[in-house]
Amino acid sequence: MERTAQLLQKNQEIEAINDALESRVEQRTLELKQANESLVGANQELDMFIYRASHDIKGPVATLAGLCKVAALDVTEPKALEYINLLDRTCEKANQTLVRILGIYEIRNLEAEPQPVSLNGLIREIAGAAKAAAGYEKVKLHLESTATVTLLADPVLVRTILVNLIDNAFRFSKRRENSYVSVRLTQGPGGEVCIQVRDNGMGILPDLRSKLFTMFFRGTVNASGTGLGLYIAKIAAERLCGRIELQPYRPEETVFEAFLPPGLCLPDPSAANVHAAENAGMI
């Protein structure tokens, strides 16, 4: 009888502990859900602020650029003309940054429209256009493919990834006789696609790897870009359930690899927004 009473008491104690644990888990789950909803809402508000601010600033920057061009037609004094041209180039850089920021907002909030995308042809088109840009005449372009690949994906997101990775490779090439940019397309047994972009430019030091995919980060003080290209490529890949990886450090060589699923995969845009904000260092 006493033994039965002891067992009953122990069972009651265990049930009380379980009830307390379950209550704590439910409370914690509710808190996490509320925190996540608050975070998503705050990030959406931040997105909208950035979009509106960038859009509103574009107008005055365009007006200033137009005034510079008009002034350049009337001014004949060399020093004044030099300042006007410098101001015009500064306006152009500011406009490029604003366009990139607006692009980030559009990628995060894009209503994806999956279509068959021929990767082989798209790579040839984008790499060829990058090669034809001014200043890259000495950079050799190598294209290699082990398969003919068609993805079911949003073409805007796929193009965004390729343009930014290939443009980055050309931008940081040394523009010398033996400089090259190589783009290699492969597809694994499971169908996963790998787009490898390699260049023998300046290379990326190991201590910079953790910052590489954050907003406005530039690997060198001489970088001429906006510091947004790799970040944009990364969030575009994530919208397709893919990823971008930087291969281990090699002196005077940089290798990026973009991995994409072969078929349709569209993650929750709100989750993508939170993850993108974390990568940007905003939260």
Layout of strands and helices, then pairs:
Elements: H1 2-74, H2 78-108, E1 115-118, H3 119-132, E2 140-145, E3 150-153, H4 155-171, E4 180-187, E5 193-199, H5 229-239, E6 243-246, E7 254-260, H6 269-280
Parallel strand pairs: 2-4
Antiparallel strand pairs: 1-3, 4-5, 5-7, 6-7
- CATH architecture tag of the largest domain: 2-Layer Sandwich
Q: Biggest sheet: strands, sense, closure?
A: 5 strands, mixed
Helical content class:
55-70%
CATH topology of the largest domain: Heat Shock Protein 90
User: Which runs of at least 5 residues are low in confidence (pLDDT < 50)?
Assistant: 268-283
Radius of gyration: 26 Å
Number of H- or I-type helical stretches: 6
Keywords, separated by commas or semicolons:
283 residues; alpha+beta; Heat Shock Protein 90; 2 domains; 56% helix; 14% strand; extended; disordered C terminus
Characterise this structure.
By secondary structure, the protein is of the alpha+beta class. It has six helices and seven strands. Strands 2-4-5-7-6 form a five-stranded mixed beta sheet, with helices on one face. A two-stranded antiparallel ribbon has the order 1-3. Strand 6 (243-246) and strand 7 (254-260) form a beta hairpin. Helix 4 (155-171) runs antiparallel to helix 5 (229-239). The longest helix has 73 residues, at 2-74.
